[in-house]
Amino acid sequence: MRVSRAQAEANRETVINVASRLFRERGFDGIGLKDLMKGAGLTQGGFYKQFESKDDLVALASRRAMESATRRWSSVAASSRDPLQGVIDLYLSAGHRGETGDGCPLVALGSDAARQSVDVRKPFQDGIKAHLQVLEELMPASGDDDDGSRKAMAMLALMVGAVTLSRILTDEKLADRLLEAAAAEAKRVAAMEPAE
């Protein structure tokens, strides 16, 4: 049975969205095409009509995940009285730690992405730049653009590392303490005087 062009495009978008979530839950190699397509409610046979390869889908799903994460940060910042604190509170929370399918793709897939092709790593690079831009815009003004950039880089590295470590831990109290310590340090980094 032939599907319309509109339905084929809707199916493609569904596969990208489902892959974005499933890759974050299971890793790029943790799910095969058959199960991925089943998760999207489609058969494996249609995969190659929509995508050149699994790498093509990985790159598209990674871009979707990174764009979603950046939009989430921007949305939280826009709706918070203290935008930077709102982003820190969202990201360095027990709730985010548990969001394996919808949480940060840098945490869920960072080490996987580092071993992938340039085409797969590019959406992550673009997403990192977008996250840095959001953080830089939220930093208290210091008059030194380079200082805001360094602070944003330090803060992103601290936050991604903290959530990654907290997901590894089986001791929930220690995981919570790690996130709390990182949140306090992120706030301190933002408030620090410019480096000389």
Describe this structure in words.
This protein has one domain: Tetracycline Repressor, domain 2 (Orthogonal Bundle). It has helices at residues 5-26, 33-39, 47-50, 54-78, 83-91, 94-98, 105-114, 118-138, 145-168, 172-191. 29% of the residues are buried. It is built from 10 helices and no strands. It starts with a helix and ends in a 5-residue tail after the last helix. It is mostly helical and 196 residues long. InterPro entries: Homeodomain-like_sf, HTH_TetR, Tet_transcr_reg_TetR-rel_C_sf. This is TetR family transcriptional regulator. Residues 32-51 bind DNA.
Query: How many DSSP H or I helices?
Result: 10
CATH class wording: Mainly Alpha
CATH structural architecture:
Orthogonal Bundle
Mean pLDDT reading: 92
The tally of beta strands, per DSSP, is: 0
Sheet with most strands = none
**Unreliable stretches:** none
- Helix percent reads over 70%
Radius of gyration: 19 Å
Alpha carbon gap, first and last residue: 67 Å
What is the overall silhouette?
elongated
CATH fold name, please? Tetracycline Repressor, domain 2
CATH H-level homologous superfamily name = Tetracycline Repressor, domain 2
Strand pairing plus helix content: what structural class?
A: mainly alpha
The fraction of residues assigned to DSSP E strands is: under 5%
Number of domains: 1
Q: In sequence order, what are the helices and strands, one letter per element?
A: HHHHHHHHHH
